Amino acid sequence: MTEGRYDAIVIGAGFGGSSCAGLLAKRGLRVLLVEKNAVAGGKALSLSKNGFTYTAWVVIGAPVEGNLYQVVLDELEVADLAKLVVPKGRGSIYETPAGKFVRMPDAPSDHLDPKLVFDWLEIDEVRRAPALQFFADMTLMPPEKVKELSGTSFDEWLGRADIPRPLRAFVASLCCDGMFMVPVDCLDAAEAIASLQAIFLRGGGVFCEGGFGRVAEAYCESVRRNGSDVLMSTRVKQVLVEDGRVGGIETDKGVFEAPIVISNAGIQPTVLKLVGPAHFDKGYVNYVRDLVPSYSLIGYRYFLRKPVTDAPFGVIFSDESPWSLDRFNRAREGKASRRGVLYYEVPSNYDSGAAPEGKQMFMTGSFCPPDPDLDKAELEAWARAGEEALFGAFPDLEACIEAKDFYTTRSVSNATRDSVVPGVGGETIGLGQIVGQCGDRKPSIRAPIRGLFYVGCDAGGTGVGTQQAIESGMNVADAVARYHQLRKSIR
Ligand SMILES: Cc1cc2nc3c(=O)[nH]c(=O)nc-3n(C[C@H](O)[C@H](O)[C@H](O)COP(=O)(O)OP(=O)(O)OC[C@H]3O[C@@H](n4cnc5c(N)ncnc54)[C@H](O)[C@@H]3O)c2cc1C
What we know:
By secondary structure, the protein is α/β, with parallel strands linked by helices. It is built from 15 helices and 20 strands.
């Protein structure tokens, strides 16, 4: 007994699924969007508690100018439902080799001024000219040259330039450890350079009032306004496949039919669980099983009795912060320091409605393996490393804590994708943007089953987290709309 028939079903209302569903409904397809959570937004959903509202964890949007949140909000005509904000002021903090925490000075412009960065990072005068040349070469590199660097690691590419250590740490910490969540010697250089260009030329640090989840919720609303359906709090149990083509989905609320199913649930959960390995050839199943996720961010939400900073967001780092694969693996075994870069965000410093009068909420995130089943001791060891950096940079903070929430790899997996491969599921981004998984080697948006597509950070986009997911949503909507037209024309 079927509950309904649609042109296309989208599984998951993360940034990839909700943007894709919104765009398809706007183009006239009858769409069903099914989400297991009560709210949209997936890895960037909004929460509220005791008068505080916020994105569930540290999520910093970039670029500022021309960001895809706004492009799709405008196209779907729901810009009134999600207000983006660009905070004034910078909060990045450099821990000098002498152990002093120094905040980046504010600049008159929203764009990164190299001279200001050089002064802050105490770069010798004699080393500034080559460092400036490095910035210029990177920022102005033409797209075809950037593309040629796909397959080279960002570490190898950085190693070709003679840049001072603090500057290297700043670029690597900013880029790999926060934007991509993979060690610098694994990160694909083309992905890294394209995103840094976007930040240097178009600004970094855009947020949404009420948390980023509002953007995905606005995309869902546009699905409804265009006459299609959204089913929240509904888990997809199975994608129905017969004779190598999709026929619909089975959920905890019944069966829905469609000749097109687009999954935002992650390529591994889709293939290995929702469809099931028996429907694919062994080579494809092994390929999917071997895909490598990004690493994870874990941290705290500190609810403070009074404000401790005016900074809206920032990164705390030292020359030692950047992760290499070897250092990460040694840290995991307890043979190297777990201390890396720490990201933080303070929503009430860009959104006046984010905290009750006179209070502040401070969120942090630091590196951790993506395993949702990490034991308590290991989780605490990774989190402690983050707190050491935090309390060093903000010595007054600890005394102001009224309550704190700990979010872990399990929290991220529960809110987003199921863990179907051991050690995987709590990743921050989705598929790791590492050498061998980017550019031409990124998984195709089309599965080897007719009518089955993937959307979100595992296929179809490039760039940083939420932007990558939306870019995928736009690209997949184009491909699916064409596929839908083609099917109609040959019937
Ligand atoms: C701690 C943390 C910090 C981050 N920081 C940043 C940042 O600073 N900047 C940035 O741009 N990005 C950041 N990101 C990454 C960014 O949020 C994600 O890369 C992006 O939102 C992923 O979008 P997605 O569409 O690929 O998938 P997801 O967000 O994973 O969405 C998938 C959706 O599918 C739903 N779903 C899954 N299975 C089913 C099922 N069986 N039935 C129904 N629904 C299902 C899930 O509930 C979810 O809503 C961060 C993420 C985390 C976790």
